[in-house]
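R.M. (postdoc): so does anyone remember the format we settled on? I'll just put the structure tokens first.
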């Protein structure tokens, strides 16, 4: 599928991603995105959208191109996608963005 250009990260448990695995995911996304102007990354969480939101917000800060504040990145992403982050995310998930 997709010419073997899919990377799967499986995170057991809920609600927060393990920090080491999160960092590996962010590095993988950045490596893919920066290797070609035609590359895009698709983030999908099968359980809820909360993990996807956290990953995207963390990446927006990780790449340091647009946001330095993780809550601002999260708010921007959620606002653009019609997501109420206050109802979707647990406090522990928001805290994780600052690690």
């Amino acid at each position: 599928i997709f010419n073997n250009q899919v990377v799967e990260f499986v995170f057991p448990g809920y609600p927060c991603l393990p920090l080491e695995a999160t960092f590996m995911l962010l590095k993988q996304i950045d490596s893919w995105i920066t290797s070609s102007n035609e590359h895009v990354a698709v983030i999908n969480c099968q359980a809820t959208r909360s993990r996807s939101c956290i990953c995207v917000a963390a990446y927006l800060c990780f790449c340091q191109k647009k946001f330095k504040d993780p809550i601002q990145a999260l708010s921007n992403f959620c606002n653009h996608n019609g997501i109420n982050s206050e109802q979707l995310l647990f406090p522990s998930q928001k805290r994780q963005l600052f690690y």
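R.M.: ...and that's the designed sequence above, right after the tokens. Also worth knowing: Helices lie at 19-34, 50-62, 70-80, 85-88, 91-96. The radius of gyration is 13 Å.
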